[in-house]
Amino acid sequence: MAFDSLAERLQEAFKKLRGKGKLNESDIKEAMREVRLALLEADVNFKVVKTFVKNVSEKAMGSEVLESLTPGQQVVKIVNEELTALMGGSEAKLNFDSSITAFMLVGLQGAGKTTMAGKLALYLRKRNRKPLLVAADIYRPAAIKQLQIVGKQIDIPVFAMGDNVSPVDIAKASMEYARKEGCDVVIIDTAGRLHIDEALMEELKNIKSSVRPMETLLVVDSMTGQDAVNVAESFNNTLDITGVILTKLDGDTRGGAALSIREVTGKPIKFSGIGEKMNDLEVFHPERMASRILG
Ligand code: GDP
User: Domain SRP54-type proteins GTP-binding spans what residues (predicted)?
Assistant: First the structure.
């Protein structure tokens, strides 16, 4: 499962602290050394680790903790709060327009964008919205078909114009189509590449400025750790994303992406993908994630 080895390492580090009636600075220093190593091993960005450990140490060294009756527990509580803060504090909600809302999904090929488009559509329909899926990836031969299959599976309409029309025109036309069909949320599945390239970014920027989506959501594969963080940074720099969706959290990801992305990009993680099925979507709850990591 995700975070298993990080959870194990942290729990090991805190077991020692919990067992002690009183703590001194060197006990805390030693525990912080272990926390630092555990986070680095989980592929958390080194700058993020540095700030995190510094914040926790400062709070843990305070007299409130050292003089408390349960100092070990106090330290764990601080780590829990700081981990929660690191992942954004509280749940980040989606923003909707008063008329038709556009959401644009962006990300590298294979990150899970098309699957996520379907999951989001299903999630929104359960909340009484009327979503429309839009096939704006005209480059990968099977992409349009794949979205159509997803749409059929969950009974959500899919707007496609083939692969001879520019993605900007497809996106624009889809808004018009949604209006006609009474759909209120348009989910645009854009093209991904194996690597970030300028042409891709330029196209995504054009789609964004032509439909003005309420959310530009970057879909990243949590299994790719620090790479996911780099991808997020560069998409955010060019596209000013509004949030991140972390996929494949059902795998044995070490946790680096989940713990670094918010801090590095300043953008919240809004959802996580926890499997290949259309129901395998969770709202991202930083506090629950922190508690899961701390066991
Ligand atoms: P795209 O190229 O970004 O559109 O990616 P796809 O949606 O085609 O997904 C790539 C692969 O990842 C597919 O085999 C999906 O079934 C799989 N996938 C997507 N999301 C998840 C997830 O949350 N968990 C798991 N285990 N697999 C996923």
Answer: 100-295
Q: Is 270 in the pocket of ligand 1 (CB under 6 A)?
A: no
> Is the four-CA dihedral 192, 195, 201, 203 of positive or negative sign?
negative
| Nearest of 253, 276, 258 to residue 115 by alpha carbon | 276
Distance 110 CA to ligand 1 centre (A): 6
Query: What is the value of ipTM here, to two decimals?
Result: 0.99
Read off the pTM: 0.95
Nearest to 84, CA basis, from 111, 57, 55, 64: 55
Report yes or no: 137 and 143 within 8 Å, Cβ to Cβ. Answer: yes
80 CB within 6 A, ligand 1 = no
Element (H, E) at 160: none
The C-alpha atoms of residue 48 and residue 133 are separated, in whole angstroms, by: 36
Enumerate the known binding-site residues for GTP: 107-114, 189-193, 247-250
Instruction: Output the residue whose Cα is nearest ligand 1's atom 20.
Output: 112
Q: Give CA–CA dist 234/240, Å, rounded.
A: 9
Amino acid, single-letter form, for residue 222: S
- Per-residue model confidence as pLDDT tens digits over 195-221: 889 999 999 999 999 999 999 999 999
